[in-house]
Amino acid sequence: MKSGTRDKVEGTMHQVKGAIKEAAGKATDSREMEIEGKIENLDGKIQKKVGQIKTIVEK
């Protein structure tokens, strides 16, 4: 698997995990978990964008 594709897949995975953490934090009234989820979601978005850029550069 090319690195750009790998970054896109891993980025999506982090976005999903972040969304789950954020929802769990809201449900349990855990502000810390909610913030961790938001951060992981944002990290995933960034990693996904990096993967998209790598895919374009690899062509």
Automatic annotation (TrEMBL):
Residues 7-55 form the CsbD-like domain. SUPFAM superfamilies: Hypothetical protein YjbJ. It comes from the Bacteria. Belongs to the UPF0337 (CsbD) family. This is CsbD family protein.
